[in-house]
Amino acid sequence: MKKILIAFSIAALLAGSAWAAPAMTPLQLGFFGSQAQLFPAETSVMGLRLNVFCSDNQDVAGFDVGVVGRAARMSAIQVNLVNIVSEEFAGIGVGLFNDVNSLQGIQAGLFNTVAHDVSGFQIGLFNNADSVSGIQVGLFNRTVSMQGLQIGLINLITEGPITFFPIVNFAY
Q1: How far apart are CA 20 and CA 61, in angstroms?
Q2: d(Cα 48, Cα 64) in Å, to the nearest integer?
Q3: C-alpha span between 28 and 39 (Å, rounded)
Q4: Which domain holds residue 146?
């Protein structure tokens, strides 16, 4: 009996050390961030990421849906209450609150912020970006520099030819 127990213990140790998180997964299921999800944050997701409450991954490509989605880089259709991408986002992001570092695509929500460059379209109550090459549509639109059009009640382009103009503002 003792030999069988030792054999099972050795087999379990070997099996446990041989299993490592994959570099990529087609499905991620997240509950409470990187501490409570199927795969660690370093695992790239190429496919579907379901955020029961919150997921956190370095790279996501595909479809991201749930309550809170966080990533460093994302190329996806993202539909969450809160979307946070710390580096680059390419695709369509829909949520109540969207916060990304740079955007290529469409961002739609109540509050949209982009720390650096927007190349595309922002639609929401409040849109904020450092540099926009595209269109902002909202109640309040703000950017430092713009190559495009703003449509909203309050439109600010701090380094534009016309800094403030209601309803429609543009710079090229």
Answers
A1: 22
A2: 6
A3: 7
A4: 2-171
**Length of the chain measured in residues:** 172
* pLDDT of the residue at 16: 39
With a cut of 80, say whether residue 13 has pLDDT above it: no
**Residue 123: C-alpha distances to residues 3, 56, 94, 118, 140 (Å):** 68, 25, 10, 12, 10
pLDDT in tens, 64-74: 999 999 999 99
The two structure tokens encoding residue 138: 């909202």
| Pair 75, 61: CB distance under 8 Å | yes
Place of tokens 């209601």: 166
What's the number of CA atoms in the CB half-sphere (13 Å) around residue 118? 36
160-169 long-range contacts (CB < 8 A, ≥24 apart) are 169/141
Instruction: Indicate the pLDDT class of residue 27, thresholds 50, 70 and 90.
Output: very high
CA distance linking residue 78 with residue 19, whole number of Å: 30
Q: For 33, which DSSP code?
A: T
18 pLDDT higher than 80? no
Give the integer Cα–Cα distance in Å for 100 and 102.
6
Q: How many domains does the chain have?
A: 1
* Tokens read off for 149: 């059009």
Tell me the backbone φ, ψ of residue 148, rounded to 5 degrees: 160, -145
Rounded to whole angstroms, the Cα distance separating 136 from 21 reads 41
